[in-house]
Design brief:
By secondary structure, the protein is mainly beta. The chain is 0% helix and 47% strand. It is built from no helices and 10 strands. It has a 6-stranded mixed beta sheet with strand order 2-10-9-4-5-6, with no helix packed on it. A 4-stranded antiparallel beta sheet has the order 1-3-8-7, with no helix packed on it. 30% of the residues are buried. The model has no long low-confidence stretch (mean pLDDT 97).
């Protein structure tokens, strides 16, 4: 049974940086396109970025383009999201996701506040 576990969130000041991690298990990670999503309070979950199975291509939401970088290490079954120049509007619970697993993980909370 596949599983995704997010970590790395926290409280950071505007302009700061965080690196989120997602540990994958129970499925063929190196064959899976991977996504990062986020959900802010009172808002719908939205896609942040996704990356191809080989890590060679990625797409970003306009709101994070140029500030966030998605990457993966297929040797470690790990997905990452490097976030820079964080803004209060980036405050949300962040989730990693694959089409191979229907359930969502617990996510990791990112709070950007002075």
């Amino acid at each position: 049974q596949g599983r995704l576990v997010e970590s790395g969130g926290g409280l950071v000041q505007p302009g700061g940086s965080l690196r989120l991690s997602c540990a994958a298990s129970g499925f063929t990670f190196n064959s899976a396109v991977m996504w990062w999503y986020r959900q802010a309070p009172g808002k719908q979950r939205e896609e942040v970025a996704h990356i191809t199975s080989d890590g060679r291509a990625a797409l970003y939401a306009d709101s994070v383009k140029g500030r966030f970088t998605i990457s993966r290490d297929n040797t470690k079954n790990m997905l990452y999201l490097q976030m820079q120049d964080l803004r209060p509007e980036d405050t949300a619970v962040y989730y990693c996701k694959t089409l191979l697993i229907s359930d969502w993980g617990q996510g990791t909370q990112v709070t950007v506040s002075p």
